[in-house]
Amino acid sequence: MFNSFEGTVMPPNTPATDFTLTDQNGHPFTLSSQKGKVVILFFGYTFCPDVCPTTLAEWRQVETALSDKKDVLKFVYITVDPERDTPERLKNHLQIFSPDFIGLTGKIQTLEKVYNAYHIFRDKDEVKGKPGMYFMSHTSRMFVIDSRGNLRLSFSYGTPVKVIVHDIRLLLEEIS
Questions:
Q1: Model confidence, pTM
Q2: Section 144-173 average pLDDT
Q3: Which residues, 6+ apart, have CB-to-CB distance to 22 below 8 Å?
Q4: Least crowded by CB within 10 Å, which of 90, 107, 122, 148?
């Protein structure tokens, strides 16, 4: 096993921007309350036809591979489509992949601050000839926050699960 990270390493001591959003159970979720845990963060939406369900399926594989560290590893999914992604919708969708995944939504003004802090692009793409139907173009990068609350790594879409598991395991070893 390698002793260095394979994902994109962020500049040292970069604090992850804190936020408070609403989780899939209707409760407030604050990122800073996760200190002491490794957090994998992704911005997506439940109506996504490709990138988001693929990412969630990969998360499930990562969760399974690191099941012995389940208590100190959190998967946090923030919607880029708050119009449709209600807490109930997030809960139903995420349970398909894992009951332990955390889905977050909130008021658009609050979400915009989070998107800006993490440099998340999102754009609504209306489907011609189908009023009210749309897809969301969005950043498809995973972010990893270490147990001290620092933004440590990111992974581009398509990063092999074994690479993600390797890097997360290294971060989890820092907690022990």
A1: 0.94
A2: 96
A3: 28, 29, 87, 104, 105, 106
A4: 107
Q: Which residues pair with 115 in a beta bridge?
A: none
Residues 71-86 pLDDT 10s: 999 999 999 999 999 9
DSSP labels for 77-143? EEES-TTT--HHHHHHHHHTT-TT-EEEE--HHHHHHHHHHTT--EEEEEPTTSTT-EEEEE---EE
Ramachandran angles phi, psi of 14, nearest 5°: -95, 105
Given CATH 3.40.30.10, say whether it is the number of domain 8-175: yes
Task: For the chain, give the longest Cα–Cα distance.
Answer: 56
Instruction: Parse the chain into domains and list their residue ranges.
Output: 8-175
Return the ∠ at Cα 89 (arms to 44 and 123), rounded to 5°. 35
